[in-house]
Write a structure and sequence with these properties.
alpha+beta, Ubiquitin-like (UB roll), DNA polymerase, domain 1, 2 domains, elongated, binds FE2/S2 (inorganic) cluster
Length: 184
């Protein structure tokens, strides 16, 4: 049986009338009307539906909306402020961190959750953290390069010298995590 509840999403309260077993993913997309959070695998494997609840990264496809009542839910729609994209969003644009974009909201929310807790992760820490977010288009180096651009304060520097960029990609490639199982 449906019941009324209030979901706080990106600082705004939304009154919804939903079943107790309604998934957060469906509540966000269909009841709140925020379709930025994407559905990929539906079983907690791909990371496309990643959102942040009370500071913790969660898979919205495995989380009950009712369990989020009274909590602060952050989605991709809440990142831009006053018409300006979040640095992670700008980095993904500037460094080619996405193509089709299905995985991108989850990638960015995962990266945000990491940087909120640790603003200066190493490359390998970023790789490890982001390994739960799958992308079938871009290849992981540009995603990694995008996140590291934020960590290193390289966003908005303009197009980097291509030789420098290639050297950077090579150095990312040399570190361990993605060596054996990814390609650009
Ligand atoms: S759709 Fe939730 S983890 Fe894939
Ligand atoms: S940009 Fe297409 S799946 Fe990641």
């Amino acid at each position: 049986m449906k019941r009324d509840m209030v979901l706080n999403v990106n600082g705004e309260e939304h009154d919804v009338e939903i079943e107790p077993n309604r998934l957060l993913l469906d509540a966000l997309r269909e009841d709140v009307g925020l379709t930025g959070t994407k559905e990929g695998c539906s079983i907690g494997v791909c990371g496309a539906c990643s959102v942040i609840v009370d500071g913790r990264l969660v898979s919205a496809c495995l989380t009950l909306a009712a369990a989020c009542e009274g909590k602060q839910i952050e989605t991709i729609e809440g990142l831009a402020q006053d018409g300006e994209l979040h640095p992670l969003q700008r980095a993904f644009v500037q460094f080619g961190g996405f193509q089709c974009g299905i995985c991108t909201p989850g990638q960015i929310m995962a990266a945000k959750a990491l940087l909120d807790h640790n603003p200066n992760p190493t490359t390998d820490e970023v790789k490890e953290w982001m390994s739960a977010n799958l992308c079938r288009c871009t290849g992981y180096y540009k995603i990694l390069e995008s996140v590291m651009a934020v960590v290193e304060g390289k966003v908005d520097e303009g197009r980097r010298d291509e030789a420098v960029r290639q050297a950077r990609i090579q150095s990312l490639y040399q570190s361990d995590t993605y060596k054996s199982d990814t390609s650009e």
